[in-house]
Amino acid sequence: VRVLIWQGAVELLASNPLRAVVGYGPETMFVAFSPVYPPELGHLESRQATPDRSHNETFDALITTGAIGFVAYLALFVGIFLYGLRWLGFLPEADAPGGARRLFLGLALGGAALGVLVPLALDHSLRFAGVGLPVGLIAGVAVYLAAAAFARPAGSQPTAFGGRELLLASLLALIVGHFVEIHFGIAIAATRLYFWLALALLISLGTGRLRLEPAPTPAQPVPRTAELSGRRRRAARGARQRVAAQRPVPALVGAAAGVFGALLLGTVLFDFVNNLTGDTAPLRILWRSLASVQLPGGRAVQSPGVAALAFLTWALGALWVLGEAENAGARLGQGWWWRACGLYGAISLGGALLFALVHASRLQPRADVGLVIYLYYAFAFGAILLAAALLPGPREPGEAWVRGRQAILYPLLAGAVGLMVWSNATVVRADICYKQGWDGYHRPASEALAAGSIDRATALRYYDQALYYYDQALRWAPEEDYYLLFKGKALLERSELTDDAQARLRDLQAAEETLRRAQALNPLNTDHTANLARLCRSWAAISGDAATRQAKLEEAARYYEQATRLSPHNAALFNEWGQTLLALGRPEEALARYQQSLALDNRYAQTYLLLAEYYLRAQDKEQAAHYAAQAAEVDPASMQVHSSLGYLYSQMGRTDDAIAEYQKVLAVYPKDYITQKNLAILYSQAGQTEQALAAAQAARALAPESERAGLDQLIAQLQAGQGKP
Fold first, then answer.
1. Residue 302: in which H helix or E strand, if any?
2. Which of 272, 364, 433, 559 could make an SS bond with 533 (beta carbons 3.0 to 4.6 A apart)?
């Protein structure tokens, strides 16, 4: 997958020299990549997915910021390595004589250049340049390190290596690990945060602006005051007070660590506690989130993974408490460790579980789940402030938090923090609502309908819930075309589930308005145009007026033409365009679209099925059979292919083959009533009345109420054929 994405990234950069210099901008790869999407990518992942990252920081930097931004990105890391090695003593100061600096830059940049040129010579393309460049850069730095370690001048003083240097080396290793990771994966917000934090610490330590505290010295006994004069007694008492003020108290360490532990554990629970089943009891929601995992089919299985992760987080905090108390330099009494751990455990577990229960109580059906982000912010900031108040350390007597003109800073600081929380949390709130709609209702309904494991009434309720949450997401992010896309998609899919013509028309009209708005916001997103085309096709299918039907099909064809210009390598769009042209009575043009699709991707089973159907309509059964066999060969594991083959074989008069195909579908989806119904009809045609009756009765038991009348008639006919009353 990555190699195909890198191949497309190279083609994208080569397609527009100006964009290669200035870039397409942040978060634009999803749209910019569509014209160069490799059809082979659809063999390895969903054909509906378009990469929004290249899984390689070099290509991501080139695509989003162009050559200008890429040079800045490369200079940043070269500078980090240069200064990091200088602070560790592997490079002399800038004004020192010798060519060490030039040697380092030559090896680093030369290695990066070789990392591009060697794959180009071997592969005759630049698709591996994004990996070769960082690998070559790191290899060049490693060669310099080896040379610097073994080529130290005679008589030179050894470099001191203490706590500062150990921390510098650790931070530099962290940054090197991040540099390697982002060239094979995606740099997310969390890893970016770690990188910039590590870089800030590295620079602060390297420049001397941040210094390590000296190791605590063991407490020295103070002479007994009874043996001293009055003045010396007062001095000794003051010394003891100053030492005590500077020495962490185990109880305070345990309490502060407990608050930090509650923050960390609460964050883990905030991330993993969810309510995909629509439960209303907070304790059950919490228990299911910790002890089970939801599989794609909706089935929950026991899994202690989340609970183990939470326990490990808590246990590491307990070890930290023990380590801090042990290293405090104070003389601790017997049983200090269990008192410190008990205080830590009570505060961390109590605080985190209380927060988790309140959080779970907000995850109710139809509740404004987006509010949980504000709850988390309140919990996090409250824990940070409380921990700051509890942290032990030297404090001057009578220390005041507010002095004179400084008082005005606190309201300003509070206002700035409030604005930051509001601006950031509003975006997150919208995304929470969207994900609740998609993961909680829309996707399960769509997958269950495809598997035939849900009735229409239940699916309609799921779509109603999904639309409620999409509306909530759009309330907080009204200009986000992605949310409009999914709302329009949900309306379009819901319209296909109802038999009420007026309700279907209302859904289609609402979907059209939503999708047009999404297209206006982001006209280069192929999905918006393609969904408008699908909308017009659905509208034409339910229209009883021939003129309206013709107009909607013509409109759909125009949208498909626009969509294929935006995504010229999308075989599925050419297939849908061909189906539309066939419905318009333009079979030659439809065949041309199918052939274009086949030329783009000869491993797409749907194209072969459509060609088989096309030739079946043209009364060319030989060609139809050929393409049907090709579909089965290309994707033998697809139940959709077997279902389509069952239909095609039944139309071709190959009843036994059709039955065999539908039986394959039933083996995977035993609750698909449509397959059972089709088998009942085929068994009846084959004269197997007993099997036909069993299939018809099974279909009736699984079918929604609206379908049962027709199945009752079929069962009655079959029973009459058997001579039963």
1. strand 300-302
2. 559
